[in-house]
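Let's sit down with a protein and look at its sequence and fold side by side. Go ahead whenever you are ready, and we will take it from there.
>
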Amino acid sequence: MQNFETTALLLGCIGTLCWAVCFWWMHRISSRQDAMLGELHAMTRRIERLSQAEHDLISDVHPQVGEIKEHVKNVSEVVSPEKS
């Protein structure tokens, strides 16, 4: 009976130690995940700002592109040798 109680106590201590190690390990993994998610969130914000700046530039240029094409078409019609 003494041997059984000693074995049970030893297994209980090992189980408690394993639980503590598992808890520490999961906490460490969670901390790394939080840090990575923070970096990912910062990167997403930078990409969003760049996308917004690109969108603003394209919005500014787009009407001008149509005007430029119209001017090029008018000039090509005037300069065209086929018309002479």
